[in-house]
Amino acid sequence: MSHFGTRAAALLCAAGMLGAVGPAQGQTAMKPGLWQIRQQMELDPAQQAQMEQMRKQMAAMPPAQRKQMEEMMGRNGAGMDAAAGGGSTSKVCVTPEDVARQSVPMEQRPDCKYDQSRSGATTNIKYVCTKPPSQGDIEITTLSAERYTMKMRGTGGAKGTKMAMQGEGQWLGADCGSVKPLPRPPAATK
User: Fold this and answer.
1) Using H for helix, E for strand and C for coil, what is the string for 164-181?
2) CA distances from 166 to 22, 67, 151, 182, 183 (A)
3) DSSP helix/strand/coil, 134
4) Which residues does residue 169 pair with via DSSP β-bridges, in sequence order?
5) What is the pLDDT of residues 21-64, one digit of tens each?
6) pLDDT score at 82
7) C-alpha distances in angstroms, 78 versus 47, 60, 157, 180?
């Protein structure tokens, strides 16, 4: 998968958490604890072949090597498990501080600008990033304090590759277990 695709997947995962953290009027904030995020990319045939090849390579690894790869992919609190068909599942630990601060448990990218608006249970985010160049729209719909859905459409990379993704987040429980919270950005100053 392209660098753009990998970054966009991480952005969507984090953006989904953003939409779920802050409560819309009349709604409850998301629950702190362990969240599972499922994402499904809409891939062109070449990208689909790359994803399938990666999935097969992971499945064919000796157990120790696969564990090492999963640990490497799971650093910073998000354990990724590549699924068939361009999908992925990750787990993210949301702390009570994240909920209280309405902060996003994500890598803060200084090369990106985000414009967010909210109407009822739906949050819309427009993003523009410079490294790699990418831009797009994300829509997150909060269904409850324990579930949300999301959609993303964007373009990026040197060739302006189009990308589309959909996903959902589901609260698994209050205990994050072995999943560590992501490093937090410094508190915003006013």
Assistant:
1) EEEEEEEEEECCCCCCCC
2) 20, 27, 4, 22, 25
3) strand
4) 37, 148
5) 454 444 557 899 999 998 888 877 887 788 788 878 888 889 89
6) 52
7) 23, 22, 24, 8
What is the C-alpha to C-alpha distance for residues 121 and 119, in angstroms, rounded to an integer?
6
- Provide the token pair at 18: 């953003």
Q: Tokens for 160? A: 């302006």
Q: Among 45, 11, 19, 1, which residue's Cα sits nearest to residue 154? A: 11
Residues above pLDDT 90, as percent of the chain: 20
CB atoms inside a 10 Å sphere around CB 107: 15
| Position 20 confidence tier, pLDDT thresholds 50, 70, 90 | very low
> How do residues 127-165 score in pLDDT, each as one tens digit?
999 988 999 999 988 899 999 999 999 998 778 888 899
Three-state secondary-structure class, residue 69: helix
User: Chain-centre distance of CA 89, in angstroms?
Assistant: 9
